[in-house]
Specification:
By secondary structure, the chain is of the alpha/beta class. The chain folds into two domains: 5-174, 3-Layer(aba) Sandwich (Rossmann fold); 189-286, 3-Layer(aba) Sandwich (Oxidized Rhodanese, domain 1), CATH 3.40.250.10. It has eleven helices and ten strands. The strands form two sheets. It has a five-stranded mixed beta sheet, sandwiched between helices. It has a five-stranded parallel beta sheet with strand order 6-10-9-7-8. A hairpin with a 2-residue loop joins strand 2 (60-66) and strand 3 (69-75). The longest helix is centred in the middle third of the chain and has 18 residues, at 108-125. The relative contact order is 0.12.
């Protein structure tokens, strides 16, 4: 949205770009700017902007909002992590409601937007302590800010020690919006045995022997977790499944149930018979069992 001329600083030059950012134009659009302020509302654009910023060496003042919560950080600097260090892969399509579906508190864009603008000014002036390696979470209902430390992932495919993503990719395909021609059929509730958060709590209270495997990333694990769960990120399951006992009853868990469904499907493919997927993931657990834990 272009600001009214009467409200623009006389030394400012507002150049509207009425176009959709995509793989074909993003590098040309941002190459001549000092930084990017990302307020996009879909995963394919977030990964696209992140990767372009890393490849061009542009800081990314990131912000997102959903319902009553907001997040902000600075990604893509040489010394700090990028968006993929926090979220290595997108959630399966349809598992995370859009703002239009889930709603958003009307003041949140202003609050998070002001934080992003502040970070942009600090980066341009080279003053203060930008949110590099720091992830700010705002809970409007509790009027509380929380900060998490983020580390650069040496195995990150974009900004890691040995990056494998050296040019932009098909982000709609990466986010599952357009499946690859040779891609296997997606995991669906019809072929994955599930357990609800309430059922899991009831079984734990009865003393049933269940082993909960959290397949999220360490950064996510720092935010919230189910007591007694063991962390094995999804990408490590193929080389670490020997640590698990095929005779044990396993409950696979992630943020919303998509990654854990993939993990459960893999374990069954290598001979595990007693594998359940936690429907709705940790967010469902928080909603139905333990509302004291923060969301992200």
């Amino acid at each position: 949205m272009m600001a009214s001329p009467s409200r623009v600083h006389p030394n400012s030059n507002v150049i509207p770009l009425p176009m959709r950012i995509d793989v074909d134009n993003v590098m040309d659009v941002i190459k001549d700017y000092d930084l990017v302020v990302d307020g996009s509302d879909n995963f394919d654009t977030r990964y696209l902007v992140n990767d372009a910023c890393v490849l061009l060496g542009k800081p990314n003042a990131y912000g997102s909002i959903f319902r009553f919560e907001g997040q902000a950080s600075v990604f893509g600097t040489k010394e700090g992590p990028c968006y993929r260090c926090l979220y290595p892969e997108p959630p399966p399509p349809g598992l995370v409601p859009s703002c239009a579906e889930g709603g958003v508190l009307g003041v949140l864009p202003g609050i998070i937007g002001v934080i992003q603008a502040t970070e942009a000014i600090k980066l341009i002036l080279g003053v203060g302590e930008p949110l590099i390696g720091r992830f700010l979470i705002y809970d409007a209902l509790k009027m509380r800010f929380r900060e998490l430390k983020l580390r650069k992932d040496p195995d990150c495919p974009v900004c890691g020690t040995h990056p494998t993503v050296k040019k932009l990719i098909d982000y709609e395909q990466f986010c599952g919006l357009r499946p690859a021609a040779a891609e296997a059929a997606p995991v669906s509730p019809s072929n994955v045995l599930e357990i609800t958060a309430v059922e899991l709590k009831q079984r734990l209270d009865r003393g049933d022997k269940l082993r909960i495997i959290d397949v999220r990333e360490p950064n996510e694990w720092q935010i919230n977790r189910i007591p007694g769960a063991q962390l094995i990120p999804l990408g490590e399951i193929p080389r670490r499944y020997a640590e698990l006992d095929p005779e044990e009853e396993l409950v696979m868990q992630c943020k919303v149930g998509g990654r854990s469904a993939k993990a459960a499907d893999f374990l069954r493919s290598v001979g595990f018979k007693r594998v359940l997927n936690l429907r709705g993931g940790i967010l469902e657990w928080i909603d139905k069992v333990d509302p004291t834990q923060p969301k992200y």
